[in-house]
Amino acid sequence: MKKYLYGLGALVAPSLIGAMVVVGCGEDGANGLPGGDDLCGPCGTLATGDVGISGDARLDGFFKALSTMQNANLSIQADFEANIRALAALYDVNLTGEINATAVGQVTAAIEADITANVEGELIVDYQPPRCQANVNVAVEAQAKCEVKAECEVMVNPGELSVACEGQCSGGCSAGCTGDFSCEVEAPSVQCTGRCEGACSLEAGGTCNGTCRGQCDGTCTVENADGSCAGECTGECQGTCELTVAAECSGSCTGKCLVNQGSAQCTGEVSCRGSCEGSCTGGCEGNFTPPSASAECDASADCQASAKAEANASLECTPPQLKIDYALNADAELNAQALFTARLAEVKARGIAIVQGAAKYEALFTGRVNGAVVFDPSPAAALTTSVQGFANASAFARFDIAPAKIQCVVGAMGDAVDVLGDFATETSGTIQAQAAFVSEFTTGFGGGA
Predict the structure, then answer these.
(1) Closest-CA residue to 410 (of 24, 70, 13, 97)
(2) 38 pLDDT band (50/70/90 cuts)?
(3) Cis (ω within 30 of 0) for the bond into 379?
(4) Which helix (H) or strand (E) holds 173?
(5) Residue 401, in any domain of the structure
(6) Helix, strand or coil for residue 349?
(7) How much is the average pLDDT of 189-195?
(8) Rounded distance, CA 289 to CA 309, Å?
(9) Total of domains in the chain
């Protein structure tokens, strides 16, 4: 892949410049002509995330998307490595080389040994995976701005536009939203007839699948100085239950209430977390096409492609929801129990961050979310295809690029080739290493439910 892309870069430069004599941005003028900076300002670059590389919004949208994806790639890789090394230090695991699946295996083996030594039986993990969506609003706004810069007459307010989402909609839905507990109701404080995601008020007492803030009639893992509970309660909790995963609430729900279509609560201003039969605003987990804000615009198709690339490159994933239950060995000393509980709390915090980053990384580079392909092609593959499509002069003929900006585009295309080459050679190892940790973490490191 990388070898091909370098060949692509060699082809792009002469095809752009051809036989023209131009003054490139950043170059000194010749024969009394002004320099490039006087003509069009300094060249924008991928590294700084500039969007004025070519001066044409349709083309610059692709450069912006590539810059966003590159930053996500570097950030997720760095965070993953930092979290794995921190866990290695926590368990005195000496990692001398790169962070790969083998290194991850050393860390997870140490965590599993710690659990075996301190827990009676196995960890019981209640896990709900992250959700990953492209930002529909980013696409709509980018589409409208692109059409305005292309001198098209924008006929509608971009804020009023929505898209047809082929996957799962997360946000407003103009028609039916289907799926189990797919209707999301903001719940400042309501009796929730479905599942509560947030905090549940248990004034009369009840089972708490999370952190109990109040009185616990059983064993509480963490207690305040006044004896009230601030941890997991094995009996009934009276007070507030901070839920770690969406669950039934026998009291008042504060946060979000998830119900099915047809419920009396699913009326008015509600959000969708399922398949939307109409148009969607907010986020889309799947393919979509940004709508045109202009009645007639020759640039719409190119604007749609770059706007979609920007939205997909900016996709975000929610943190996973995770609850871990376990019973400590009865014969362990209290100090040892406290140290183990603290270690496991750090494993949980760093593990959630790793899972969230891994979900975004896989969605960007493979198109998969929780094992299923929802972005086809993946954002990275679609962007690579677009850049490969710029390998000849005719591909650039439809863009309005000032002569003095041509050298800027040539430089940016060279950078794009390098970035895409790195995507092709570096991401698979990171995905494998992330998957090795996620698999162990979400099943309790050697066992779970």
Answers:
(1) 13
(2) very low
(3) no
(4) strand 168-173
(5) yes
(6) helix
(7) 79
(8) 10
(9) 1
Span of 126-140, 143-157, 336-350 with lowest mean pLDDT: 143-157
Is 362 a member of any domain? yes
Asked, for residue 337, whether it belongs to a domain, the answer is yes
Beta bridge partners of 197: 256
* Residue 362, SS3 per DSSP: helix
Alpha-carbon distance 97 to 88, whole Å?
A: 12
pLDDT for residue 344: 94
Give Dmax (Cα) for the chain: 89
Closest to 265 measured CA to CA, from 183, 179, 320: 183
- pTM, full prediction: 0.77
Contacts of 178 (CB under 8 A, 6+ apart): 261, 274, 275, 277
Domain that holds residue 438: 2-130+319-442
- Domain membership of residue 16 (yes or no) is yes
- CA-to-CA distance for 432 and 308, rounded, in angstroms? 28
Q: Is 112 exposed, middle or buried (0-12, 13-18, 19+ CB in 10 A)?
A: middle
Q: To which H or E segment does residue 307 belong?
A: helix 300-313
